[in-house]
Known about the structure:
Elements: H1 13-26, E1 55-60, H2 64-73, H3 75-81, E2 84-89, H4 93-102, E3 109-112, H5 115-123, H6 132-141, H7 144-147, E4 151-152, E5 155-156, E6 159-165, E7 168-171, H8 173-179, H9 187-199, E8 203-205, H10 217-230, H11 233-240, H12 249-262, H13 283-286, E9 295-299, E10 321-324, E11 335-345, H14 350-359, H15 362-369, H16 389-398, E12 404-407, H17 409-412, H18 415-430, H19 435-445
Parallel strand pairs: 1-2, 1-3, 8-9, 11-12
Antiparallel strand pairs: 3-11, 4-5, 6-11, 7-9, 7-10
Amino acid sequence: MAVFTRPRQAFVIAGVLGLALSATACGTGDDKKSDKAGSAECAPYEKYQGNDGKKVSIYASIRDAEADLLERSWSQFTECTGIEIAYEGSGEFEAQLPVRVDGGNAPDIAFVPQPGLVKRFADAGKLKQLGADTKALAEQNMPADWLKYGTVNGTLYGVPLGANVKSFVWYSPKTFKEKGWEVPTTWEQLIALSDKIAASGMKPWCAGVESGDATGWPATDWIEDVLLRTAGAEVYDQWTTHAIPFNDPRVVDAVDRAGTILKNDKYMNGGFGGVKSITTTAFQEAGLPVTTGKCAMHRQASFYANQFPEGTKVAADGDAFAFYFPAIDAAKGKPVLGAGEFVVAYADRPEVQAVQTYLASAEYVNSRAKLGNWVTANNKLDIANVASPIDKLSVQILQDKTGVFRFDGSDLMPAAVGAGTFWKGMVEWLNGKATAPVLQGIESSWPK
């Protein structure tokens, strides 16, 4: 699930200092516009001039340290153009955005993680079409597979921004080395390792799905990742579009297979309690026990690197790193589940279009990447600007043309299901409800 009620990235001091120095060269930050608007530092922003003193509001679910990085990532743009960006991040974004939009109080721009929600607003006539410059840049810089997720009835409304790879299992390389454990490359090896760790007295897995109004989303990611591995991409696509029912036998099989880990008290929930503690454990905290020896593995996306305490070395030879969530059926290849957010606009004033265009540019994505722990599917991202080993691995996966990539399924579904009954159903399932009635309930909720 791409619900970024979760802060995603770590604060990287060197990158921030570098950007701060660059911004200082371009202006003081107290002025609306730099005195050096025509300088070499501001040359990349010449195309956005003419909007000095204008204000653009952006609303998203990105908060805390990640919100600080977000605002720093466009600081030079605002210094050089004089456009003020008023950013607001909220943990209730998914619930509050429709309320604001339907109530006539929409932001100028929103970063929407769910293509299903983009479609909802587009169908209601709430979104503005992209300006010509934004559309041209998006089509030039973004893979076609990503653009289709922001397209509704043939019209591109949402430009992909950040991205993440979800098919990862976090672990401690240091602990694995000390214990003599090998990183598994198949599902059979993963289960064998889980059994071995459980027999040693340590819980092999830890998990948490509590996330405010979005509680339940991490469990939906498990189901999607497993379904891709057991049934394949074609069935996955049929499921997310409701070409097959939500409770198709192949989906039931995937949920039950995920349950062999998630609902197994011998495996769960290191550092927190038993299986039922998963629903009350905040997703931000859920993987931290891998670095304290209370659990060995935590399935979560690349952005989880942000959650480890300051000083944690995230690397293949460090305190924490991640391995690819193993394939189950070799015939289905090595599928990758991922997600991201889409920049949509509810206003089309020139300054709004300028900001939307900038966010699709090479200047922006490399500016943001230099701050650390952030990736995008934008092909103008220079991997040399990506410092984190896990992010380098994620970029390589995203740019691998031979890979089988699929977007987070719950984000593709109608919001009432993907961000509603699916999330809630997974909480009920983890709390002990059987698979069949849970999936039947979600199936019954699909809009007719």
